[in-house]
Amino acid sequence: MTDSRVVDFVLSQTGLALFSLLLTVFCYFGAKRLYKYHRVWWLAPIVLAPIVITLLVFNLKIPLPTYFEYTHWLMAMLAPATITFALPIYRERNLIRQYPLTIGLGVTAGLFLGMLSSWLLVKFVPLPVELSKSLLVRSVSTPFAMEATSAFGGVPELTAMMVLITGVIGMLVCEPLFKFMRIRTSLGKGVALGASAHGAGAAKATEIGQQEGVIASLTMIFIGIAMVLGAPVFALIFI
After folding, report:
1. What is the pLDDT at residue 11?
2. Which helix (H) or strand (E) covers residue 33, if one does?
3. In angstroms, what CA-CA distances link 180 with 12, 191, 192?
4. Helix 142-152 and helix 156-181: axis angle, to 10°?
5. Distance between terminal CA atoms of the chain?
6. Where, by residue number, does the polypeptide cross the bilayer (predicted)?
7. What whole-number distance in Å separates Cα of residue 130 and Cα of residue 200?
8. Are 213 and 206 spatial neighbours (Cβ–Cβ below 8 Å)?
9. Is residue 18 a contact partner of residue 68, using CB atoms and an 8 Å limit?
10. Chain centroid to CA 204: how far?
């Protein structure tokens, strides 16, 4: 391919779409590698990668439909990825048998307090209708939230954004809150992070300790499953 053809391809819609996909993957793995060596919150992939990608897309003037032409497959992979959640449930079944009441209460409290806090926010803060409905499932992991939000009349893309923001905030404030509330046990920290900050919380819990990470993952999974199964009923209650 000659130099002129290379330039024409890069500037074409297909070329920009492919560039956007490669850019997204590169930013994620680049941020992940940086965070491996420098454990500061602003280098976490969930924080750094979206910021860098957003800045590059807008500065390079890549149209959003072009950006999503190929990158939407990354989002589509979230749905089949939920199947893999069965693995930690099976692998850690002894831990579930050991702490059924604590995990069960954590799942129940996390599910309803998450929706209740979102409902109160929507009630007292004027927000666009689409945003308010998309906000109600922000406290469960992205694949489950995007599946459940349709029952509330929410927009999956907005829901994913709310989930991301919730996870980042939970990841940032968890340790000061643990100290303030004097939460010292692995079980308490794991359940709290999994219930309130889903995937980001589970990642943070894994940094704190192995057992914290396992418990956070289990709590996150059970809350997500409960949200998807109960979404039609919850929609009747909170809308």
Report:
1. 53
2. helix 13-37
3. 54, 17, 14
4. 120
5. 57
6. 6-28, 40-58, 70-90, 102-122, 158-178, 214-238
7. 24
8. yes
9. no
10. 13
State the pLDDT at residue 52.
92
Q: How does DSSP classify residue 184?
A: -
**For residues 65 and 48, what is the distance between their CA atoms, to the nearest angstrom?**
23
Backbone phi, then psi, for 17, in 5-degree steps?
-65, -45
Identify whether the C-beta of residue 94 lies closer than 8 Å to the C-beta of residue 116.
no
Structure tokens given for 238? 């909170």
CB 217 within 8 A of CB 194: yes
Q: Calculate the alpha carbon distances from 33 to 17, 39, 89, 160 in Å.
A: 25, 10, 28, 24
Q: What is the pLDDT of residue 26?
A: 94
pLDDT < 50 regions, the chain? 1, 6-7, 9
What is the Cα–Cα distance from 212 to 25, expressed in whole angstroms?
A: 29
State how far the Cα of 141 lies from the Cα of 159, in Å rounded to an integer: 10
Sole residue written with tokens 């109960």: 230
3-state helix, strand, coil split of the chain in percent (to 5) is: 85, 0, 15
What radius of gyration do the chain's Cα atoms show? 20
Structure tokens at 104: 């069960």
Q: How many CB atoms sit inside 10 A of residue 198's CB?
A: 32
Of 230, 214, 231, 232, nearest to 103 (Cα)?
214
Structural tokens at position 192: 């709290």
Contact call for residues 150 and 126 (beta carbons, < 8 A): no
Residue type, 106: G
